[in-house]
Specification:
This protein is α/β, with parallel strands linked by helices and about 280 residues long. It is built from 11 helices and 12 strands.
Length: about 280
């Protein structure tokens, strides 16, 4: 854990014109994510309102807040599960307006879920290969007739799936049923499948849910390693504050659908509004 904490604390966060902060290393790059006055209303209820967030191209960011604050709704807006009532979402500077889930994925956004969603009866390798679907380079006829291009692509997908599994020390589990894996390994597999789509932004929805302290510590190291090896941005929703404060460089706090604070881990921990709304009120005297 200390290695992950040191990695986070070494990062200098600097302001950008959108009134956000990004890591200094990303300041001259187009942000991987920008939301502008994003909001959605369900039957008159404003679930998310005026949500403005910028994430640098290699930033590990956190989205925290009480249960019901609107965090998963934000993820659904970013991935086009929901169409926003107001505002815009930009991925690598491109507006997602009018796009569907598949088109957003092709632009470079991938996610995992709070409740693990694997194909339990399929092998570990086949679960990863599902994530490689957007890299298939042959047409339907080639696949039906099993032409040479089909076999070449199949070989390439097999090798890539094993390569991704090997990065997370899971290659020896390639032929196992996904549903037979221990809980922590299933979490890693879901992340590997998301990485197989070659995202620029990886969204992790409560990745530490159900994990014990040792698994959570390993997850922190995994998240930092993913960013370093794949050079992508990561945005995570998490209630485990040791994970958030240990690995996130920028943190956004949501309450009743609105942002109440943005800043570094140190700034968020010292923010009175956050302490009251999420971390608990300070004791008097």
């Amino acid at each position: 854990m200390s290695q992950v904490r040191r990695h986070r604390s070494d990062t200098k966060m600097v302001p950008v014109p959108s009134h956000s902060i990004v890591p200094e290393r990303d300041v001259n790059e187009i942000p991987v994510l920008e939301t502008r006055h994003l909001g959605i209303t369900f039957g008159g209820l404003k679930a998310v309102e005026d949500f403005n967030l910028t994430i640098g191209r290699t930033e590990i960011a956190g989205l925290i807040g009480p249960n019901g604050a609107g965090k998963t709704t934000v993820f659904n807006l970013l991935t086009k599960v929901y169409e926003p009532t107001t505002g815009a979402v930009l991925i690598n500077g491109q507006d997602l307006h009018g796009m569907n889930i598949v088109q957003a994925s092709h632009l470079g956004i991938a996610r995992t879920f709070q409740n693990i969603r694997l194909f339990d009866k399929m092998t570990v390798e086949d679960n990863v290969r599902i994530g490689l679907h957007n890299q298939i380079r042959y047409d339907m006829l080639t696949g039906i007739l099993r032409l040479p291009r089909y076999w070449k692509q199949e070989k390439r997908q097999h090798e890539r799936a094993l390569e991704l599994l090997d990065l997370f020390h899971m290659q020896n589990l390639a032929d196992e049923e996904a549903g037979s894996l221990p809980y922590g390994a299933q979490r890693r597999l879901e992340i590997i499948r998301a990485l197989a789509t070659e995202p620029k932004l990886l969204l992790l929805d409560e990745p530490a849910a159900g994990m014990n302290p040792r698994e959570t510590e390993e997850l922190m190291e995994t998240i930092a390693r993913i960013r370093d090896e794949f050079q992508i941005a990561i945005l995570l929703i998490e209630h485990d504050m040791s994970l958030v404060m240990g690995v996130c460089e920028g943190i956004c706090v949501l309450n009743f659908g609105r942002i109440i604070a943005k800043g570094t881990a140190d700034e968020i921990q010292a923010n009175p509004a956050v302490i009251e709304a999420y971390l608990g009120k300070r004791k008097e005297g």
